[in-house]
Amino acid sequence: MIALRNTIILTLFLVSPFHSEIYGESGIWREILLENFELSNFNASHLRTKLEKGTKLPEISLSNNFTAPIPGSKQALVLRIPKDANLPFSLYFPKPIEVNAFIKEISIPIYSSQSSGNLTLIIETQDAEVRQLNLTSLNYRGWKTITVSISKNFDQNDRVFLQKSSIRILGFFYLPYENNDPNQEVLIAIDDITAIVRDKYRPLRNKEILLED
Q1: How far apart are CA 211 and CA 22, in angstroms?
Q2: Which residue(s) pair with 76 in the sheet?
Q3: How far apart are the first and last CA of the chain?
């Protein structure tokens, strides 16, 4: 009787929806560095716009004098947007950041010169669908670490056993507001991009049932 009761308790534990939360509290989450802007080269070719050909684009540079107040930061990406270039544009990484782990959230220190605009993160899902995830309004001045949830916005389950599906972070999209001051120069800086991740759980025999959050 005791053995049967223990078996039932163990079975309930394994199928309980709180199973992943228990593992989360046990410390299986870890922080990883996705980009520190110290090894990649950025230039004007990584800036794109859907506006007419010849549209002026921001000035892009890497600075070791203007970094976020975080430990270990040696270089940050800086975008200077002149008055006549304050238009929508995308900034793409030289190589997409591919993450095979299960991402809980992504954190990015972002500097803003208090402009009337918005910054989003461009992500390609495991189904090759390109989506934009809102990061922040830029109506503040100084550095601010922005944290966005990924686990609540994107399906990261492996549909097929050992498929090793991944999410790819492609870049950023800047959109000035319509009431933006046409005489205002905009300054944006981006520093170390980190993520809280864990290993993906393997699917059960029934492929419709996955041990995920």
Answers
A1: 12
A2: 63
A3: 34
Nearest C-alpha neighbor of 151 from the set 203, 121, 94, 106 = 106
> What's the Rg (C-alpha) of the chain?
21
Tally of CA atoms within 13 A in the half-sphere of 71 that contains its CB? 1
- What DSSP line would sit under 29-69, residue for residue? -EEEEEE-SSS----GGGEE-SS-TT----EEEEESSS--S
130-137 and 117-124 strand pairing: antiparallel
Q: What is the pTM of this model?
A: 0.78
| Tens digits of pLDDT across the chain (213 residues) | 444 444 433 333 333 332 233 234 345 999 999 999 998 899 999 999 987 777 889 999 999 999 999 999 999 999 999 988 888 999 999 999 999 999 999 999 999 999 889 999 999 988 889 999 999 999 999 999 999 999 888 878 766 655 677 899 999 999 998 776 667 789 999 999 999 999 887 655 454 544 454
Beta-bridged to residue 32, according to DSSP, are 195
